[in-house]
Amino acid sequence: MAAFVKCLCAALKARSCVMILMVGALALPSMTLAVEGGSSNWAMGSAGFGAGRIPDPGFHFVDLLWFMDISTDQDFTLGQNKVDRLDVDITVNFFLPTYAGRIDAWNARYKVLGVLPVVWLDGKYRVQNAPDVKGSENHKLGDPGIDMAIGWHQEDFLDAKGLSLDYAPGLLVTTPWGDYDKQEVLNAGKNRWTIQPNFSYTLFHEPTGIELSQRIMYAFNLENDKTNYKSGQELHFDWALGKQFGEGWQAGLFGFFYRQTTGDSGKGATLGSLKGKGWGVGPIVQYSGKIGDVPATAILRYQKVQQDKNRTDDDSLMFNFVLSF
Hints:
Layout: H1 2-14, H2 18-25, E1 58-72, E2 76-78, E3 81-95, E4 98-103, E5 108-127, E6 134-141, E7 145-154, E8 163-174, E9 194-205, E10 210-221, E11 234-245, E12 249-260, E13 277-291, E14 294-309, E15 313-324
Antiparallel strand pairs: 1-3, 1-4, 1-15, 2-3, 3-5, 4-5, 5-6, 5-7, 7-8, 8-9, 9-10, 10-11, 11-12, 12-13, 13-14, 14-15
């Protein structure tokens, strides 16, 4: 670690470091819950290692299995319901088929991936002013989307020997096409468009095997036309810091920081113009190898989420599996 820091500091003295400082400065997901339903159209912390790298050209089968245990006794709205207690187990399987290619004229790579979530919900809740606790269990289609990025690779970044930089601006668009019923308390979909421009980077120091990755995103939420609730804009970034070791292994810490920059609005925002903020952190381990002749990667991570204001607290376990063809 010391060698990596020394190398990076030397590089920063040699050249302008505006981009890295901007990335670091954005380290800015929760009483009542902000953003309709208290959740965002992004699996916080899921960017992980290699966030700034565009994969090799070809098709990649990517699957993310996400387990969450969420509980809160804060007031919030779900559909047309005002809820003051929630305890729910959520399992989401994100099928993320990915295609990557080259743009030779720009010396760049690009990727396009679909986001197809299937959601299992099993929870209990209490509607305000109701004496009984109700339960719900179902599995439905979540909100699909499309994620696009173009990226570049640079060796000996800032003239620092052995330090490489991968970076990729991108755009994630989430549709309101998942299963949604405003009369239900627990829904797989959110019934709102979300547009998230983003920027990702990965710094890797080959002599030490140390990596730092971040994905910075800004979410513009459109109004839920069934509830007239317009969730506020959201700034969040995922990060991962780790080290490669052994044959194909990598381990470290990962997490996210979240801040809602504008308040909720619209006729459906009956609890007021709320804002949320919070963060999460946990361990991550990754193994890359082959199944036969097919490159494969498996990633396991656990995250403890601490919401400072107007968000739900939760524990989450994520498992990724990638096959590259």
